């Protein structure tokens, strides 16, 4: 059985997609970011949660503050990327649930009244949304360089608050020279899928 999505789109979104390590200096506009969000916001989550929050790091001063918290090997690429996004989970996402889940507004208090439950749900569902965001960046013809090599406590203190947990930092832009490492292996279908 073949996929419905055409081969070129499959390549763009998955087969040819890699973490970008260099970028051109072509800017990434607010309009491009909004188009990405307006596409990926429809990706499914549990209870229609929308815990993902995005901090766009544009100013030179903010970039310096962020680079200081990046792992040594990630600093040059974060310093040079046209746009950097901090993707975070909002642990108070449940406040939006009555609007996002109008047919079941009581879910807010019934399932998410306890902070540890919210943190777990926010982490999982914001990670789903982060994955959609990365695919959306690719759908916009841009490259993404997602990274978890940073001081999470420092990034949280510098850019977020106690209600937001950083998930990853994503460099975004048009791929530059030698942007890609060779494709690394993947597990086979038989290694991953079990039928019971």
Write structural notes for this entry:
By secondary structure, this protein is an alpha+beta fold. The chain contains nine helices and four strands. The chain has helices spanning 7-15, 30-40, 60-67, 75-80, 97-100, 107-112, 115-139, 152-159, 189-192; strands spanning 52-57, 83-90, 143-147, 164-173. A four-stranded antiparallel β-sheet has the order 1-2-4-3. The mean pLDDT is 96.
Topology:
Layout: H1 7-15, H2 30-40, E1 52-57, H3 60-67, H4 75-80, E2 83-90, H5 97-100, H6 107-112, H7 115-139, E3 143-147, H8 152-159, E4 164-173, H9 189-192
Antiparallel strand pairs: 1-2, 2-4, 3-4
Helix pairs in contact: 1-7, 2-7
Q: How would you concisely characterize the structure shown here?
A:
The chain has about 200 residues and is α+β, with helices and mostly antiparallel strands. The chain has helices at about 5-15, 30-40, 60-65, 75-80, 95-100, 105-110, 115-140, 150-160, 190, and strands at about 50-55, 85-90, 145, 165-175.
**Structural class based on helices, strands and sheet pairing:** alpha+beta
Share in helix: 40-55%
Major sheet details? 4 strands, antiparallel
Radius of gyration: 18 Å
State the total count of DSSP E strands.
4
Mean pLDDT figure:
96
Query: Can you tell me the residue ranges where pLDDT is under 50 for at least 5 consecutive residues?
Result: none
């Amino acid at each position: 059985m073949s996929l419905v999505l055409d081969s070129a789109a499959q390549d763009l979104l998955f087969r040819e997609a890699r973490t970008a390590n260099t970028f051109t200096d072509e800017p990434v506009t607010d309009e491009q970011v909004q188009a990405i969000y307006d596409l990926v916001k429809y990706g499914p989550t549990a209870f229609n949660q929308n815990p993902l929050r995005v901090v766009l790091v544009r100013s030179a001063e903010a970039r310096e503050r962020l680079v200081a918290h990046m792992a040594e090997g990630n600093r040059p690429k974060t310093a040079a990327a046209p746009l950097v996004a901090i993707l975070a989970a909002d642990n108070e996402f449940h406040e939006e649930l009555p609007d996002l889940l109008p047919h079941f507004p009581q879910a807010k208090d019934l399932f998410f009244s306890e902070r540890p439950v919210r943190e777990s749900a926010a982490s999982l569902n914001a990670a789903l949304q982060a994955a959609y965001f990365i695919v959306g960046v690719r759908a916009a013809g841009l490259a993404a360089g997602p990274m978890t090599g940073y001081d999470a406590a420092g990034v949280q203190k510098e850019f977020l608050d106690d209600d937001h947990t950083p998930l990853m930092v994503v460099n975004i832009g048009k791929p530059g020279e030698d942007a890609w490492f060779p494709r690394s292996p993947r597990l086979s279908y038989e290694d991953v899928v079990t039928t019971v």
